[in-house]
């Protein structure tokens, strides 16, 4: 039942903390459709949930409301929390979806990252059981909800704590608020929970520009700003203990460097940061997602092969852009050598190499895809209606899409999009959309981000079918 609960949780409204954005009629339609599909396609839902957890345990209530610190969510975080003591006076605290790290010094404690909102109160209870020393410093690696929103509870408990962020953090925090509706929708978070001000985000006492060396409790902490998953992201090294704290640069699988639903990723700087980490020759890797790595040789190997993989995608993409190839062709045919394809820590469970290639292209060449007619803005609906007419009607398009689906599901999905956007009130178009995208979701190698896009499109079509009074025909 866990997979069904997960999808029903994604559909449900979050705990009450009304802040910023109101769901649209289309948002509500998607929620209704998710519930219908979760009941009608249990095996596909099970397949979707196979990678839930992002390198850690899962919790459906937390997954749908990471901005909430409601008591039941704090309890859920504590129930699946585990504490691993690593090295000398260091702990990796693992929660559903994300980790935080705690370091004890001679004079106090330093916390690396604060987790999502429910983690803050959980840490307020946990930290005094690990050490009697006060929390003196908090490092917030970046602004994402699973790293920054536990801060208010910690600041309330230890008001004298010094918070450390990149000097770009305030600007990125303002961006999170400005785009809160879009971010919440694309991250499957309840829109009323999205912040409308920066009040809940960390306020820094110490800023890092490029690099900062701090003496804390008689030890040297090295902090490095390096754009990666976000522009302001940072990582930390503790040379005296041979440890690095990797934020979201290392995730235990092919990292979220090609997320087509979020702000620009910085692939080249990401790879450079990984090489800088390896240059420290650390014996302990403390990640914010997934399990720690405590063998120096293995730490270096993992950091290096990930750096090489990102460098490979970036270099090939840029070379082919310079050769005059179109961006869609580059992404669709990007080479992925066997040494990367067979590496467990490069498993494409969240996004694909071709998504990273698209991110590189978008960064350096703008939005135009190289197709001349696409330079002029035109609603996709206009193209879709004409494609249906040229095909000889919706029934002909439906037949061809279904013929293609077993052998060329990508092309079948393009035809299904023409059907949906060209005749959105036609039950044939809606049924085709559900069938094509639920089939795509069932593909063995479907990554999480891509799958969620397809699930929401199928959900919208399924709810529209219900509105038309048509029964399912899976």
Automatic annotation (TrEMBL):
Superkingdom of origin: Bacteria
| Record domain Metallo-beta-lactamase: where | 97-289
Alphabetical keyword list: Hydrolase, Signal
Q: Does the keyword Hydrolase apply?
A: yes
Short name of one Pfam family: Lactamase_B
The UniProt entry, under InterPro entries, shows: Alkyl/aryl-sulf_dimr_sf, Alkyl_sulf_dimr, Bact_Alkyl/Aryl-Sulfatase, Metallo-B-lactamas, RibonucZ/Hydroxyglut_hydro
User: What GO molecular function annotations does the UniProt record carry, in alphabetical order?
Assistant: hydrolase activity; protein dimerization activity
Under Gene3D superfamilies, the record lists: Alkyl sulfatase, dimerisation domain, Ribonuclease Z/Hydroxyacylglutathione hydrolase-like
Q: Which residues form the signal peptide?
A: 1-18
Name under which the protein is recorded: MBL fold metallo-hydrolase
Report the source organism: Sphingorhabdus contaminans
Lineage start: Bacteria, Pseudomonadati, Pseudomonadota, Alphaproteobacteria, Sphingomonadales
């Amino acid at each position: 039942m866990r997979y069904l609960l997960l999808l029903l949780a994604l559909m449900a409204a979050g705990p009450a903390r009304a802040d910023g954005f109101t769901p649209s009629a289309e948002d509500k339609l998607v929620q209704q459709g998710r519930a219908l599909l979760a009941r009608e396609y249990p095996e596909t839902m099970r397949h979707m949930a196979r990678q839930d957890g992002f390198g850690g345990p899962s919790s459906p209530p937390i997954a749908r409301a990471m901005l909430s610190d409601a008591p039941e969510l704090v309890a859920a975080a504590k129930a699946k929390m585990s504490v691993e003591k690593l090295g000398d006076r260091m702990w990796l605290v693992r929660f559903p979806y994300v980790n935080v790290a705690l370091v004890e010094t001679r004079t106090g404690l330093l916390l690396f990252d604060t987790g999502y909102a429910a983690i803050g109160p959980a840490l307020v209870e946990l930290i005094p059981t690990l050490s009697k020393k006060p929390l003196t410093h908090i490092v917030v690696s970046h602004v994402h909800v699973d790293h920054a929103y536990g801060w208010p509870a910690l600041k309330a408990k230890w008001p004298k704590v010094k918070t450390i962020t990149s000097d770009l953090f305030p600007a990125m925090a303002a961006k999170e608020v400005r785009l809160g509706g879009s971010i919440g929708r694309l991250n499957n978070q309840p829109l009323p929970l999205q912040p409308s001000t920066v009040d809940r985000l960390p306020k820094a006492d110490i800023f890092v520009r490029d690099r900062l060396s701090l003496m804390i409790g008689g030890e040297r902490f090295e902090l490095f700003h390096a754009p990666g998953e976000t522009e302001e992201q940072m990582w930390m090294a503790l040379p005296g203990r041979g440890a690095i704290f990797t934020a979201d640069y290392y995730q235990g699988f092919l990292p979220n460097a090609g997320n087509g639903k979020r702000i620009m990723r910085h692939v080249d700087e990401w790879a450079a940061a990984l090489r800088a980490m390896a240059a420290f020759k650390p014996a302990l890797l403390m990640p914010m997602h997934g399990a720690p790595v405590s063998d120096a040789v293995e730490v270096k190997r993992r950091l290096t092969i990930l750096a090489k993989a990102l460098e490979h995608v970036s270099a090939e993409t840029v070379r082919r852009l310079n050769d005059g190839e179109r961006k869609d062709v580059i992404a669709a045919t990007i080479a992925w050598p066997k040494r990367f394809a067979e590496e467990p820590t490069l498993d494409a469970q969240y996004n694909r190499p071709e998504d990273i290639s698209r991110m590189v292209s978008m960064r350096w060449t703008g939005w135009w895809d190289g197709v001349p007619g696409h330079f002029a803005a035109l609603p996709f609906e206009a193209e879709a209606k004409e494609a249906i007419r040229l095909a000889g009607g919706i029934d002909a398009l439906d037949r061809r899409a279904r013929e293609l689906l077993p052998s060329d599901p990508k092309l079948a999905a393009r035809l299904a999009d023409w059907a949906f956007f060209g005749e959105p009130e036609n039950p044939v178009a809606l049924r085709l959309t559900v069938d094509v995208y639920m089939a795509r979701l069932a593909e063995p190698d479907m990554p999480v981000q891509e799958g969620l896009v397809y699930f929401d499109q199928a959900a919208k079509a399924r709810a529209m079918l219900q509105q038309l009074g048509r029964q399912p025909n899976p």
